[in-house]
Amino acid sequence: MLRKSLTGLLLTASLLLGASIANADECSHRGVLDDKFCDENKDLVADSPKDASQWRDPSTLVFTYTPVEDPAVYKDAFQEFQQHLSAATGKKVIYYTVHSNAAEVEAIRSGRLHIAGFSTGPTGYAVNLGGYVPIAVKGTADSFQGYNLITIVRKDSPIQTMADLKGKLVAHTSASSNSGNLAPRALFPALGITPDTDYTVKYSGKHDQSIMGVLSGDYDAAPVASDVFDRMVSAERIKLDDFRIIYTSPRFPTSAFGYAHDLHPELVEKIKQAFASFRFSAQMTETFNGADRFYPVTYQEDWKVIRDIAHATGTAYSKAGLKALAEKDAAKAAKKRAEQVAAEAAKTSS
Questions:
Q1: Cα-flanking dihedrals φ and ψ of residue 91, to 5°?
Q2: What does the alpha-carbon distance between residue 185 and residue 180 come to, in Å, rounded to a whole number?
Q3: Which of 78, 312, 314, 332 is nearest to 205 (CA)?
Q4: SS3 for 345?
Q5: Residue 156: CB partners within 8 Å, gap ≥ 6?
Q6: All domains of the chain, ordered by start, with CATH?
Q7: Which of 64, 87, 123, 327 is the most buried (most CB within 10 A)?
């Protein structure tokens, strides 16, 4: 009996070793990508599966855009592109609304999402953990549409410089946000101001909530994305004269657009062509601050500054990092629901 057990254990160990060797042979390089992906051409994104049986060619393509501000606004804004994408691929295209960055990453990772726009910061999670391949950014014929991290205060605030933020309450948006959290933590120390040390950080959840919080006096200041701020001004949700900008960073790329790595290569080519040939309507151009097309980018080159910021802030595009992001998203959602219930109760009692 003992001999049989030992033989069985040795056989199992041999099979496991063989499987490990086989797996190693199947992928010679994956870099920092999750174990389920391979990156043998070392372009930092997941390769298409070698086994053609793993290529997906769904009859319906699922598309979404990052849950910044009001998701319903962007569902309508991308309707024309969805129609163009459907014509280019010969497939039905539906919009899948997501309510958090973590949920969007999980959707691309699980295969429920095929084509998507991810916010600048969470793009790294989508690439490393979800097999997401960024290919475009909103832009013009000359360049991609960029944005800056800006630090805003109320026009009547005594705060004049970044140094004046010491001892203040400053709104950051969310843990995964580039301009709303990661970039400030990487760039502000060189300006003599360190978040959490020199000022108190309070997460607002979204850029528009940080902006409105500064306006209402809930926060002394806030680092936010300049494109969100500009859109709110254009939509007359806020007045430019009510704010003062005390800092402007170098330019960052805006949300990335791309596809799931395991889509059939022929379908991928049609998707790429759809992005390359689409031109925004006047209404879309107005919604997206002057962009009139999708400008081609690569994660390896155009997201380098974002990866550098993430590295400087200790952000890991890993499962543990995504779990922490999901927990923070859930906590923010619960807080928002509680505030809504309290507001409704206050209305009822009055």
A1: -125, 155
A2: 9
A3: 332
A4: helix
A5: none
A6: 52-141+257-330 (3.40.190.10), 146-253 (3.40.190.10)
A7: 123
* Helices vs strands, H then E, count in the chain: 13, 11
pLDDT band at 4 (very low <50, low <70, confident <90, very high): very low
Q: Is 116 helix (H, G, I), strand (E, B) or coil?
A: strand
Average pLDDT over residues 259-267: 98
Cα gap 96→58, rounded to integer Å: 15
The single-letter DSSP state of residue 197 is: T
**pLDDT per residue over 269-293, tens digit each?**
999 999 999 999 999 998 888 999 9
Chain centroid to CA 198: how far? Answer: 28
**Angle 319-349/101-110 helices, nearest 10 degrees?**
130
Q: Return the sign of the alpha-carbon dihedral for residues 32, 38, 43, 49.
A: negative
Q: State the amino acid at position 321 in one-letter form.
A: G
- The pTM (predicted TM-score) of the whole model is 0.71
Residue pLDDT, tens place only, 21-55: 344 458 999 999 999 999 999 999 999 999 999 99
Are the C-beta atoms of 133 and 46 separated by less than 8 Å? yes
Taking the C-alpha atoms of residue 120 and residue 224, their distance in angstroms, rounded to an integer, is 13
Q: Which of 321, 298, 296 is nearest to 311 (CA)?
A: 321
Question: What CA–CA distances, in Å, run from 160 to 164, 191, 250, 343?
Answer: 7, 14, 20, 34
* CB contact set of 182 (below 8 Å; sequence gap of 6+): 121, 176, 306, 309, 310, 313, 315
pLDDT tens, 131-179?
999 999 999 999 998 889 999 999 999 999 999 999 999 999 998 888 8
Which tokens sit at 221?
């200041």
Give bridge partners of residue 132 from the DSSP assignment: 260
> Average model confidence (pLDDT) for the chain?
88
- Those residues whose C-beta lies under 8 Å from the C-beta of residue 244, and which sit 6 or more positions away, are 152, 153, 154, 155, 157
Q: For residues 127 and 32, what is the distance between their CA atoms, to the nearest angstrom?
A: 10
